[in-house]
Automatic annotation (TrEMBL), chain A:
Pathway(s) where this gene product acts: Cofactor biosynthesis; adenosylcobalamin biosynthesis; adenosylcobalamin from cob(II)yrinate a,c-diamide: step 5/7; Cofactor biosynthesis; adenosylcobalamin biosynthesis; adenosylcobalamin from cob(II)yrinate a,c-diamide: step 6/7
EC supergroup of this enzyme: transferase
Superkingdom to which the source organism belongs: Bacteria
UniProt keyword annotation of Nucleotidyltransferase present: yes
Catalytic activity annotation: adenosylcob(III)inamide phosphate + GTP + H(+) = adenosylcob(III)inamide-GDP + diphosphate; adenosylcob(III)inamide + GTP = adenosylcob(III)inamide phosphate + GDP + H(+); adenosylcob(III)inamide + ATP = adenosylcob(III)inamide phosphate + ADP + H(+)
Protein name: Adenosylcobinamide kinase
Record: active site: 51
Annotated residues for binding of GTP: 35-37, 66, 87
One GO term of the biological process aspect: cobalamin biosynthetic process
InterPro entries assigned to the protein according to its UniProt record, in alphabetical order: CobU/CobP, P-loop_NTPase
TrEMBL record, chain B:
SUPFAM superfamilies for this protein: P-loop containing nucleoside triphosphate hydrolases (SSF52540)
Protein name, UniProt field: Adenosyl cobinamide kinase/adenosyl cobinamide phosphate guanylyltransferase
GO terms for biological process, alphabetical: cobalamin biosynthetic process
Keyword NAD included in the entry's annotation: no
Cross-referenced Pfam families: CobU
Keyword Plastid: no
Organism: [Anoxybacillus] calidus
GO molecular function: adenosylcobinamide kinase activity; nucleotide binding; nucleotidyltransferase activity
InterPro entries from the UniProt entry: CobU/CobP, P-loop_NTPase
Gene3D superfamilies membership: P-loop containing nucleotide triphosphate hydrolases
Alphabetically ordered keywords of this record: Kinase, Nucleotidyltransferase, Transferase
């Protein structure tokens, strides 16, 4: 099962995602947290500490994976007793796209986005549930500089592909989950 | 008229192509602001479906006048296309616009004016359209 949750900054996405994990996890399951942030400055370090602190007070015990890039390398390490929270797609894509000099080439960006999509699809298939957190960054027009343009285009593409694949798609606004898509059981 | 709005890279174009089944055989004009100029209805047109994509870019190009005349110009353009559509039952005018209203207020005056005029124009257009859809991640939500 795949649940996609997107929202603006401070919209409560992560909190909503953690609640979903809690609902889905049953007695013999394990909760996993795939963290994608790279520590780039003091603010980022504090932010990561705050998220870790919140998780440590959570009723669930989390196994944390630090995976700022190369998501595909861990996809086969999960099974049907694992509930995974991927937080967040935005970081993962940025880390992959800007890891080398080819971010100004669309075909290179597309290859990286496709690799992320394939990893997500496999994770969703292998696990009991995969909850993906991402960001809404699309309301300021089409950007002119090549880096932002490619980043937004690839993120938009991934959002569309993941939502199409997902069983549930949620837009978080002010801490309130707005359900945009819900697959009814056949 | 039908207005399709939503953030950048949300699949608006793809949705329109699928919904109206627009392919090479279908008689339509696809006029993209990212590639070409805007135009008003004229007598030489034989197509029944007109799509204007990148409305925010068409609007941006008309910002050389003051913003009030700009708004009036667009209201008139929407009205002319509405009249054209109403002349024949099979005609349909489709507008695709990127929502640029939810970022930080730009410091640059021209950028600010662009956002303002685009917001006003979208409101005018919504009044004149009989259908409005908002696209998010490829999913359409009908607003009108």
């Amino acid at each position: 099962m795949i649940v996609f949750i997107s929202g603006g900054v401070r919209s409560g996405k992560t909190h909503i995602a953690e609640q979903y994990v809690q609902q889905i996890v049953s007695e013999n399951d394990e909760a996993h947290y795939i963290a994608t942030a790279k520590i780039t400055d003091e603010e980022m370090r504090q932010r990561i500490i705050r998220h870790q602190h919140e998780r440590s007070h959570h009723p669930l015990s989390w196994k944390t994976w630090e995976q700022p890039e190369k998501l595909h390398t861990i996809v086969n390490r999960f099974d049907k007793n694992d509930v995974i929270l991927l937080d967040c797609l935005t970081n993962l894509l940025a880390n992959e796209l800007f890891a080398d000099e080819f971010w100004h080439k669309e075909d290179s960006c597309l290859r990286k986005a496709t690799s992320i999509y394939e990893a997500i699809r496999t994770l969703g298939k292998n696990s009991k549930a995969l909850i993906i957190v991402s960001n809404e960054v699309f309301y300021n027009g089409v950007p002119e500089d090549a880096g932002t343009y490619h980043f937004m285009k690839m993120l938009g593409l991934l959002h569309q592909q993941i939502v199409s694949l997902a069983d549930k798609a949620i837009l978080a606004q002010n801490g309130v989950p707005l359900i945009k898509k819900e697959r009814t059981k056949e | 008229m039908h207005f399709i709005v939503g953030g950048a890279f949300q699949g608006k174009r793809k949705w329109v192509k699928e919904y109206y089944q627009l392919n090479d055989c279908q008689q339509h004009i696809w006029c993209s602001g990212y590639e070409t100029e805007f135009f008003l209805p004229h007598h030489k047109m034989t197509q029944t479906v007109i799509v204007f994509e990148g409305l925010e870019i068409f609007i941006r190009r008309t910002l050389y006048t003051d913003i009030m005349s700009c708004r009036n110009e667009w209201r008139e353009a929407f009205r002319l296309w509405q009249l054209w559509e109403n002349e024949k039952l099979e005609r349909r005018v489709i507008w695709i616009g990127c929502d640029i209203s939810q970022g930080i207020v730009p410091i640059n005056e021209e950028e600010r004016n662009w956002r303002d005029v685009t917001g006003w124009c979208y409101q005018e257009l919504v009044k004149m359209c009989n259908r409005v859809d908002r696209i998010w991640c490829g999913l359409a939500e009908r607003m009108k």
